[in-house]
């Protein structure tokens, strides 16, 4: 297999857009990645030809829709290296998956003064659900500190894994800083102490292959829209024994076996956690995204992303007054930065005028912003469909912005 | 939309050199505004003589639009009565949100009309005005 960014770009229709008279340079894949053509077509094909409710009909369309939906689940099982389809729950996204674990796994388990351990660099989606369950149970949220490069150290985490720690939840990759956490070692340390682990893979899944059995985590979660698939899709991987032990989260259709007014019996995994009609078309799109990624030389794609990161770091470093926020040794392909005299929001507007899409803001990681004592940063996040030329344009446009505001 | 319509010279100038920037001590009213979208914070402090805004100053961190809007606002409302300032709030609010709003007699504040073409930035320009409005509303009994 060979990899060419300029060729793969052709398969993402939105990348052909022209914004303010300039070719779109989409540097915001960390917020949401663009859709691959196969995803768009799979969704389209389903909507046109196969739509019916799943798991409910004996008619042809329902059988076909069910086969496509469950086919997507089978792809995810393989993609993540899970043991069976009973371990893969479809959710609305990362956020819903974490809330499910917080409410269905942690809440019944937690006692007063038990502890949930997270890290300082988490996305709000991996903070707030735990705070809510702490309020409900009297458990405490404990936070592994971060260093000034935006790194989380194994020793710092181990120091906080105590006899009351029930749960360790952390990001695989930080969305605000790009830091890749040493999750293999973190998971091993937690496991050795009998602590349940959840890894937020939202920012990892599009960048490198993940194998949940090799990793050994209890839960792994991610969103479809960050891996070229539709919004409103996500995955909760859970070890079967844990999922089996958990009560359902939401009640409704599909998650039951029998219902009477005196007693309801629940369906088995994974349906137990998929109450109601799911996002059928979105999940089918997610399945197509998995096929697309499987057909890609992922090592080559990742090498290209690393080249993008290196080039961006070199190019932006040349801009006087530009400061990187997040300088971990092991980083995913994104740069978070500040430019002296130019607020990130203004920078975002000026870059947009040049056809360049970046994110400006707190990236749903206010504790990270607070740590670095900044209200916001500008973030350019890359995918393998980005090019070195786009990064050169980014560099030039930042310099242009500096001129406007000086 | 033309970028130069958003970042007019008046806006850039007030961003570089914000007027009435700094502490005001003692102040009669002090109020904080927060824009969760961009993390911008500003503190507005006012002094009154009777019904008149005799002094107004601000501190905080914000984008160019937010800083310039606040700076222009402090210039515009200093020496005005509460009602005059509230009337100005209404005019500027319209200027930022209604396509057909006119900028007659708004002076330098007319420069804010360029923000209208950038819906994501309207909040940046209006934050200080909403903060002012809260500061001028009579305290709840
Ligand atoms: C690290 C991380 N966790 C969680 C989320 C939340 O994902 P979603 O909004 O798709 O549920 C994001 C999305 O920005 C993220 O980057």
SSE layout and pairings?
The complex is a heterodimer of chains A (406) and B (141).
Chain A: H1 5-8, E1 18-19, E2 22-23, E3 25-26, H2 37-50, H3 60-80, E4 88-91, H4 94-109, E5 115-119, H5 128-137, E6 140-144, H6 154-160, E7 165-171, H7 183-192, E8 196-200, H8 212-215, E9 219-223, E10 234-238, H9 240-245, E11 256-259, E12 264-266, H10 280-294, H11 298-317, E13 322-324, E14 334-339, H12 344-353, E15 356-357, E16 359-361, H13 366-371, E17 377-381, H14 388-405
Parallel strand pairs in A: 3-15, 5-6, 5-7, 7-8, 8-9
Antiparallel strand pairs in A: 1-2, 4-10, 9-10, 11-12, 13-14, 14-17, 16-17
Helix pairs in contact in A: 2-10, 3-10, 4-5, 11-14, 12-14
Chain B: H1 3-6, H2 9-16, E1 29-35, E2 40-49, E3 52-61, H3 64-77, H4 82-97, H5 122-136
Antiparallel strand pairs in B: 1-2, 2-3
Helix pairs in contact in B: 2-3, 3-5, 4-5
The structure holds pyridoxal-5'-phosphate.
Q: What composes the largest sheet of chain A?
A: 7 strands, mixed
* Secondary structure tally, helices of chain A: 14
Largest interface comes to: A-B, 17 and 19 residues
Name of the CATH architecture of the largest domain in chain A:
3-Layer(aba) Sandwich
The N- and C-terminal alpha carbons of chain B lie at a distance of: 46 Å
**Sheet with the most strands, sense and barrel status of chain B:** 3 strands, antiparallel
DSSP summary: helix tally of chain B: 5
